[in-house]
Amino acid sequence: MRDLIPLVQLTADVVILTVRQELEVLLVRRGKPPFEGMLAIPGGYMEPGENLWQTAVRELQEETSLDGMAHHLELVGIYTDPDRDPRGQVASGAWVAMIPDPPVARPGGDAAATQWLPVEQALESALAFDHRVILHDAVERARRSLDQSTAAVSFCRKEFTVSELRRVYETVWGGKLDPGNFHRKVTRIEGFIERTGRTTTRDGGRPAALYTAGARKWLPPSIPRPEMSA
Amino acid sequence: MRDLIPLVQLTADVVILTVRQELEVLLVRRGKPPFEGMLAIPGGYMEPGENLWQTAVRELQEETSLDGMAHHLELVGIYTDPDRDPRGQVASGAWVAMIPDPPVARPGGDAAATQWLPVEQALESALAFDHRVILHDAVERARRSLDQSTAAVSFCRKEFTVSELRRVYETVWGGKLDPGNFHRKVTRIEGFIERTGRTTTRDGGRPAALYTAGARKWLPPSIPRPEMSA
DNA sequence: GCAAAAGTGTTGAAGCTACACCCATGA
DNA sequence: TCATGGGTGTAGCTTCAACACTTTTGC
Prior knowledge:
Two copies of one chain form a homodimer.
Chain A: E1 7-19, E2 23-30, E3 39-40, E4 43-45, H1 52-64, E5 73-79, E6 90-98, E7 111-118, H2 119-124, H3 131-148, H4 162-173, H5 179-188, E8 193-200, E9 208-213
Parallel strand pairs in A: 1-6
Antiparallel strand pairs in A: 1-2, 1-4, 2-3, 2-7, 5-6, 8-9
The first copy, chain A, binds a DNA duplex through residues 161-163, 178-181, 183-185, 201, 203-209, 224.
């Protein structure tokens, strides 16, 4: 009976997204079989003593030289179809990371090359394993997070302007937001973003106030919670 | 090198929640070691040919006699600490299910007994494995889903009244909502709930219109998406 | 000065909260 | 008839969308 229980290996795949002109994803070209030469989502095996979240943090760090721990890493799903990997039973936890300013991509491990690709384009490409599904789910999740949480700030550098934040929303959703109204909206949601007191003119025009991420994690719901009482 | 990659067994744990007077969770008392005699979240091993979601569906079905497929099953997390199970490396995917009307709990498998417990009370109890953490995360997730998605209807039977839906929110959040305003709110969100044309007097008073769940999955965000264009 | 981006003011429409009030049933 | 919960009306307030307009920089 106990022998019938599948023994599996675990991998963490990390869908690394950033916002430039469009929403882009970091992919690696596989340097060895299976799917040698194909594009894939960066990931790797869980190592002894690790849990899978730590694996994801490590992968993010290896691919981007970013401190994975400090960045937004959100679980997307767990992919466990028995035949998803030709090498045998390999289950994968998929995370999505939203990072600012694409840093230089760093090839390493079994990746012959890493590259940024617009997600539109990546979703039309053939990817290794079930990575097209994973990428699709991850992008869905990222869009949803923009709706509901303060995750958009993860796409901005540590200090950012309201306009830079607005451009994140505009890019991920496609469309334009009224700058004035957006400014009032986000500055009025308590704990969303906090002024640093500094300003910048890096976007041209009148100096813009710089902000950092606030403590709030979730945007206010559309059905407001009642006052706690019970 | 390849031998260093841990081989693990996979289990699916299903946190089954329902709303009665309070938010309650279905727990099983373990009938064999490890943690024999302790309360635990129902779950079981992934079987050959299954993926882990199917395992979760099967577990829900075994514990509640409900068609697991038809019910709301939401991934909560993946629990992979190397020492979370004394039997060895066992990783667990945790789901949360929100079901109506507690049906009769059905002991089966390695569960000597199953019982409903108020969540507050369960969170104060010692549970097997890391199940206190899992339960905590699952309840958080359920609360969040009420904010952001239409998941509240999963706590209602197939046909329900607006008041029954309101009581779900009131119970999960603790507090009172204005009946009139709540009624207008949910009936005006398109696709949230749909009238059946039938009525009921099961809650007393004037007959109440019966509704079913609509097609909408997510409630409107507080920062409205711009019109798509790009 | 001119262009560009930041941020504020304004106005009419829409939505929300609180609460009164009527409705339709069972007892 | 009364009690109970269902549902609508309404007044006052807040928020919102659209867009004009002022501010502060770089060139």
